[in-house]
Amino acid sequence: MAREHGILGARLTKIAVALCALAILALAPKPSRAALPPMSAVMIDAKTGQTLYSQNANAPRYPASLTKLMTLYLLFEALRDNRITLNEMMPVSVHAASVEPVKLGARPGSRITVQEAILGMVTLSANDAATIAGEFLAGGDETRFGALMTLKAHSLGMTHTVFHNASGLPDPAQVTTAHDLAILARRLVEDFPEDYHYFSTPSFVFHGRLINNHDHLLKSYPGADGMKTGYTNAAGHNLVTSAVRGGVRLIGVVMAAPSNSYRDHQMAMMLDQGFADELGGNARIAMVNAATAARQAQAEATPVVPASDPTVAQARRQIASNASLGRADWNLDLGNYSSKSAAYTALRIARREAQGGVVHLVTLRTKSRHPAWHAWVAAVSENHAHATCSAMNHYGRTCVAVRPGAGRRNREIAER
């Protein structure tokens, strides 16, 4: 009898322990917008890692498209280790092509380059590009890639983060914190200085379509040079921003904001206060210098006329008709610019990279009072056309290689 009572007592103890464990899990924090504070935010000094501001920084949150920062980290890591190349072609699975809602529109059975996937993620926040990259790095299995992402996150010190997919599409088990994302952003800056420039890409061309960057602070906040936006209904409006003034780089994270404008405003205020604290009396001078540098970079690198504008189609038809100089009959379409000096800068770079070619510059009529300039280089060999546009796209500049006599239908991105 005593033995039976002992066995029964042991079983009851196990049941009690199990019930306690379930109770603890039930009481553990979950990323429910109703149960958590309205917003999380953190700001750090990128050089030292010191936290300068914190608000609910360790509260569990859904990352939404901020997930793509980890996908990009693993892509950059593979590039650094020479396991892949920028021009390597990645297959598009049925699953990757079917993800919604924001995507490049890659068709199942086709292929895109690693560089196209990177640009698609940093500008459009393309879910198909992220899924394609994740499957490619994990042997075709996005679930396995989620496990790899989580392992990497924990190795970086992101101890409150779990990833299940490459894009950030809703998954109740995919959680992180503002603090963990600040760690990731800092490591992206530190670990991949040669690739970080992708985050400031203003736009790029995919299959003839001009895609602009969704990050408003790249244009509106002096000194901002990346990184990533994110939104789902459950996650709210998320943003990670890195900005540099006076030699000081700050990284800010805002999560679960009620709107894009509120999110951007909070980020700007947070960074302003951080730079004021870090730079003291030199903060104003640093802001003016950063604003001047931002305007100059935008003038030199950003096309201002949409690719769908009829004047662009007319210019490209003219480009395609320039195929008459033997084997050197490809053209480099460099896009449209708001100033003639910016167009000439693009022309100089393209001609240098192509080791020759005939320079063309056309003034375009626009709806505004200010003209725009369309630039291209004619009489380039096919190999030089591909190499030149690959190099220019790598640094965020518009360049499309135009096949001789192909017209609009057969235009192709040079890095393909």
Largest sheet composition: 5 strands, antiparallel
What's the CATH C level of the largest domain? Alpha Beta
CATH topology of the largest domain: Beta-lactamase
Structural class category? alpha+beta
| Parts with pLDDT < 50 across at least 5 consecutive residues | 1-36, 302-312, 318-326, 406-416
How would you sum up this structure, described in words?
This protein is of the alpha+beta class. The protein has 2 domains: 40-301, DD-peptidase/beta-lactamase superfamily (Beta-lactamase), CATH 3.40.710.10; 310-402, Alpha-Beta Plaits (2-Layer Sandwich), CATH 3.30.70. Helix content is 42%, strand content 19%. It is built from 13 helices and 13 strands. It has helices spanning 2-27, 68-80, 94-98, 114-124, 127-137, 142-155, 178-191, 217-220, 260-279, 283-301, 310-320, 340-354, 382-394; strands spanning 40-45, 51-55, 89-91, 111-113, 203-206, 209-212, 224-232, 236-245, 248-257, 330-337, 358-364, 372-380, 400-402. The protein has a 5-stranded antiparallel sheet, with helices on both faces. The radius of gyration is 25 Å and the shape is globular. It starts with a helix and ends in a 14-residue tail after the last strand.
Summarize the helices and strands and which ones pair or pack.
Elements: H1 2-27, E1 40-45, E2 51-55, H2 68-80, E3 89-91, H3 94-98, E4 111-113, H4 114-124, H5 127-137, H6 142-155, H7 178-191, E5 203-206, E6 209-212, H8 217-220, E7 224-232, E8 236-245, E9 248-257, H9 260-279, H10 283-301, H11 310-320, E10 330-337, H12 340-354, E11 358-364, E12 372-380, H13 382-394, E13 400-402
Helix pairs in contact: 2-5, 2-7, 4-5, 5-6, 12-13
